From TrEMBL:
Source organism: Actinomycetospora flava
Listed Pfam families: MFS_1
Regions that span the bilayer: 21-42, 54-73, 85-111, 117-135, 147-165, 171-193, 205-224, 230-248, 269-289, 301-321, 333-353, 359-377, 414-433, 439-457
Keywords per UniProt: Membrane, Transmembrane, Transmembrane helix
Subcellular localization: Cell membrane
Primary subcellular site in the record, as a coarse category: membrane
SUPFAM superfamilies for the chain: MFS general substrate transporter (SSF103473)
InterPro entries, per the entry: MFS, MFS_dom, MFS_trans_sf
Lineage: Bacteria, Bacillati, Actinomycetota, Actinomycetes, Pseudonocardiales
Domain Major facilitator superfamily (MFS) profile stretches: 20-462
Name this polypeptide is given: MFS transporter
Topology of this chain in the membrane: Multi-pass membrane protein
Length: 464
């Protein structure tokens, strides 16, 4: 076995691994592309089927359903072979995408999004859960980087493809493409995962935790519907209280999303998960970039969609460079600072500039923010996956807690994006009916959250 620094990208593609890595990355990519392609399609979809007041809901409901499904991953893999579980997840996801493709109204579209979320949540969670059994520990960071990079790839592919289809064809074709992609991945699942056996022990379903975070996202979504600054601000306050209650509940309940080690005295794992939530939550701003690009900058759908490529391209670039770093702590310290700087740049630009110069600076800020996320993410994810491992030779390894730590990476990711997307709806509502004011509030809100993440980077780096 190689040492901690000995894992290589070539080893990731060794015989017996490349198929599993391809499937796990592909399933995550389907889920992630769906998340972000919807952002560039929604303006066109709303124009055709109505439901403008529910603009943030297709993403929020999709991710909340995914959270519920991802929380069931341990139970599914404990009772069903990995290959069969993956096929079921792909099938449910494809059915949801098909419903979206033919949806005549917003209500039907929202139903399809829930179905897709259930299948996609299993796909995304199984990606991280099976890293531990498909790869040696020396490759966990690179495995996390490959799967997390699929989110970055989705941020590049999703807005661009969605914008092109919205302008030159039909937004419905994007969901049809996801059906086809799911079938292609399903064709190679039996051979790729036939040896995968996940020693996962199902624990109690975290009903309370999921309900609290779901309620926070729901309150934010409803506050965004009100289109009144006072109601939006009140909704934000209530959501913050619910998130605090989530943390309190997680500390006390055995049916938790996070492993027990998160709240061990002196453990930095709580900061690791917290920083991960901030990084991914801020990336939720991408759901609104096409809308802002069209309404504020007057961009065509395709160009507004490609504006969203900036954050995704930065994420992928930062991820691939940082995953091989031998000194991860400086990356965990610097990544959130870069994210904060990028989002602040966009927020300030909206206050001071417009026209081509403003759009260019938006792209620069989003690119810098994406690099910041990608720089820190693989090290945070690998630390979270191994966070429930024994800290001394005297402690026994708890397989169930180790599995929970793996699954929690995806659960935290989806919870954060769902809350982040709903928070974006509140930001728009704070600006009232003025698109420019709404855009300013939107990016100012995300910039404030990113600054909080930069402040949390130092304690989180102690856990890397």
């Amino acid at each position: 076995m190689t040492d901690e620094q000995g894992g290589s990208w070539a080893q990731m593609l060794a015989p017996g691994r490349r198929g599993a890595v391809t499937v796990l990355a592909g399933g995550t990519l389907m889920f992630a592309v769906d998340t972000y392609v919807t952002a560039s399609l929604l303006p066109s979809a709303v124009a055709e089927i109505g439901g403008a007041a529910f603009y943030a809901w297709p993403t929020t409901l999709f991710l909340l359903a995914a959270v519920v499904a991802s929380s069931l991953t341990s139970r599914v893999l404990a009772t069903v072979a990995a290959a069969r579980a993956y096929l079921v997840a792909l099938g449910v996801f494809a059915v949801g995408a098909l419903i979206d493709a033919v949806a005549p109204t917003m209500a039907v579209l929202l139903f399809g999004r829930v179905v897709q979320g259930l299948g996609g949540g299993l796909l995304a969670a199984m990606g991280y859960a099976l890293i531990r059994v498909a790869l040696p520990r020396t490759l966990w960071t690179r495995g996390s980087a490959v799967i997390a990079a699929m989110w970055g790839v989705a941020l590049v592919v999703g807005p661009g493809v969605g914008g092109l289809l919205a302008e030159y064809a039909s937004w419905r074709w994007a969901f049809g493409a996801l059906v086809v992609g799911s079938l292609v991945i399903a064709a190679i699942v039996p051979s790729a995962l036939h040896r995968a056996r996940a020693p996962i022990s199902p624990g109690p379903f975290p009903v309370g935790s999921v309900l609290l975070v779901g309620a926070a996202a729901g309150v934010l979504s409803l506050a965004g519907l009100a289109a009144r600054p006072l109601v939006a601000g009140l909704g934000l306050l209530v959501a913050l209280v619910l998130l605090v209650l989530f943390v309190v509940h997680e500390r006390r309940t055995p049916a938790a999303v996070l492993p027990r080690a998160t709240f061990r005295p002196g453990s930095p794992l709580r900061w690791v998960y917290g920083l991960m939530a901030v990084l991914v939550g801020v990336s939720g701003v991408e759901a609104f970039v096409p809308l802002v690009g069209q309404q504020v900058a007057g961009l065509d759908p395709v160009f507004a969609g490609f504006l969203g490529v900036a954050l995704g391209a930065g994420w992928v670039l930062g991820e691939m460079i940082s995953a091989s770093a031998r000194r991860p702590r400086p990356r965990v310290l610097g990544g959130p600072v870069l994210l904060a700087a990028g989002t602040v740049l966009v927020a300030v630009t909206l206050l001071t500039l417009d026209g081509t110069a403003g759009v260019v600076l938006w792209a620069v800020g989003l690119l810098a923010g994406g690099i910041g996320i990608g720089t820190a993410w693989p090290h945070l994810a690998a630390s979270a996956i191994g966070g429930a491992e024994p800290v001394s030779d005297q402690e026994e390894r708890d397989e169930g807690e180790a599995d929970k730590a793996s699954a929690a990476v995806t659960t935290v990711q989806m919870l954060a994006v769902s809350v982040g997307t709903a928070l974006g709806g509140v930001g728009l509502a704070l600006g009232g009916a003025d698109p420019v004011a709404s855009a300013r509030w939107l990016f100012a809100t995300f910039a404030a959250v990113a600054v909080v993440g930069a402040l949390a980077a130092r304690p989180a780096s102690r856990g890397v």
